[in-house]
From TrEMBL:
Chemical reaction(s) catalysed: Hydrolysis of terminal, non-reducing beta-D-glucosyl residues with release of beta-D-glucose
UniProt superkingdom: Bacteria
Protein name as it appears in the record: Beta-glucosidase
GO molecular function terms noted in the UniProt entry: beta-glucosidase activity
InterPro entries: GH, Glyco_hydro_1, Glyco_hydro_1_AS, Glyco_hydro_1_beta-glucosidase
GO cellular component, one term: cytosol
Gene3D superfamilies in the cross-refs: Glycosidases
Keywords linked to the UniProt accession: Carbohydrate metabolism, Cellulose degradation, Glycosidase, Hydrolase, Polysaccharide degradation
Listed EC numbers: 3.2.1.21
Length: 442
């Protein structure tokens, strides 16, 4: 059973989230090539070399999907606009069909009484810009500002909230240091530059949107509870370094206009020249902060010879999702408290993603997902308690409205409240969808 909306503060918002490349179908509608298409085409990067060419075909099934959102009773929908759909070459001539699509999406939401919560970048960098160095190239600040201007001049007048970047840690560290996401680099210099430039873009886009008269602008960070894998000083230190890189670097840049000392030391000279001068752009005031939370990870010290940060992730003992991620709802209250006390104070906080990949199709009935209902219930309980304790948490978005392209894992993991049959692309609401509808009924 999910907690009912009446158990939350009266103005608390419930929403569902998706992202462009994961659902739209990027081979369609005049979108340009993205670095995810390139990455997926190189064997070994993505399970089955699957890409987002068709995905959920949301581009052609948008009305059906918006009807489902409304049917569930959601107050808000967090979606992203695709840079390569708006500007196929990353710069230059916009794709009129792409702009029309987002225009219809926003109007479709408003017609159904659903608040449009937009994200400008959820990972599909146009290949033309990736070829110029992508996130490593400081010029991305100008490119991103121009893209923001083009798309928000068209839809910004009807957007309820907007955030420039989804998950700065994934855009930089996971993609340039761990090499797990596009562009698949394993290079500390590239990583340091990406970490900084992604925040520079946050600031540049925020300026552009303010200039267009938009309000309710935020930032979305992902956090993962970092625990020590053993009762040793070395493991505790590893967890602390991970926490600084993953959970503190980005929010600190945005909220405090500084980076944690130990990360600056660790990155050494790899941060781009003059990085301190960018904080006036990066840490301008925003209106809310978003937290994407899924799991925790245990850490230990890597062998002596390993370069900074010299830590290794260790398999933990808790029950895991189909992604192999530990289920740790307490981490959600940990971060809501940590954010409020150390960084954001009275600023409204939204949980902008939370959900699990279940073993849906292994249960014999792909629409029966008791593990997802239990996961959502446990995490919503933490949110409810945080709100009762006075933390200004104002809303919760479930990841995801429907099964979709799970990046390097392809189409096998299913995060949806709605099952998508990958052969017919038909949608089938799962038990979790009905549970949400019950919980949201007034
Ligand atoms: C989100 O990122 C994305 O915004 C979304 O696009 C995606 O579909 C969704 O999550 C589900 O993955 O292997 O134990 O070390 C989440 C960020 C980063 C969370 C990697 C889990 C690995 C855990 N994720 N992390 S572990």
């Amino acid at each position: 059973m999910l907690p009912h909306r009446s158990e939350f503060p009266t103005d608390f918002l419930f929403g569902a989230a998706t992202s462009a490349y994961q659902i739209e179908g990027h081979a369609q509608g005049g979108a340009g090539r993205t670095h995810w298409d390139d990455f997926a085409a190189t064997p070994g990067n993505v399970a089955g070399a699957e890409d987002g060419a068709i995905a959920c075909d949301h581009l052609n099934r948008m009305d059906e999907d918006l009807d489902l959102l409304k049917d569930a009773g959601f107050d808000a929908y967090r979606f992203s606009t695709s840079w390569a759909r708006v500007l196929p070459e990353g710069r230059g001539t916009p794709n009129a069909e792409g702009l029309d699509f987002y225009d219809r999406l926003v109007d479709g939401l408003l017609e159904r009484g659903i608040k449009p919560a937009a994200t400008l970048y959820h990972w599909e960098l146009p290949s033309a810009l990736s070829d110029l160095g992508g996130w490593r190239n400081r010029d991305i600040g100008d490119w991103f500002a121009d893209y923001t201007e083009v798309i928000m001049s068209r839809i910004g007048d009807r957007i309820w909230s907007a955030a420039p970047i989804n998950e700065p840690w994934c855009v930089s560290w996971l993609s340039h240091f761990e090499g797990i996401h596009a562009p698949g680099l394993r290079d500390i210099r590239a990583t340091a530059r990406a970490m900084h430039h992604v925040l520079l873009c946050h600031g540049r886009a925020t300026e552009v949107m303010r200039g267009l008269g938009m309000s309710n602008l935020g930032a979305v960070c992902n956090m993962e509870y970092a625990g020590p894998a053993a009762d040793t000083d070395a493991a505790r230190k590893a967890a602390r370094v991970q926490d600084a890189i993953y959970n503190r670097f980005f929010i600190s840049g945005i909220m405090k206009g500084s980076y944690p000392d130990e990360v600056v030391e660790g990155l050494g000279d790899y941060l781009p020249d003059g990085w301190q001068d960018d904080f006036k752009t990066i840490s301008q005031p925003i209106d809310w902060i978003g937290l994407n939370y899924y799991t925790r990870r245990l850490h230990d010290a890597a062998p002596e010879s390993a370069p900074w940060p010299a830590t290794v992730g260790v398999d933990g003992p808790l029950p895991k999702t189909a992604m192999g991620w530990e289920i740790y709802p307490e981490g959600l209250s940990h971060f809501l408290t940590m954010m409020q006390q150390e960084y954001t104070g009275d600023l409204p906080i939204y949980v902008t993603e939370n959900g699990l990949a279940g073993n849906d199709e292994l249960t014999g009935d792909p629409l029966s997902d008791p593990d997802r209902i239990a996961y959502l219930a446990a995490h919503l309980k933490q949110v409810k308690q945080a709100a009762a304790d006075g933390i200004p948490v104002k809303g919760y978005f479930a990841w995801s409205l429907m099964d979709n392209y799970e990046w390097a894992e392809g189409y096998a993991p299913r995060f949806g409240l709605i099952h998508v049959d990958w052969a017919s692309l038909n949608r089938y609401p799962k038990a979790s969808f009905s549970a949400i509808r019950e919980a949201l009924k007034s």
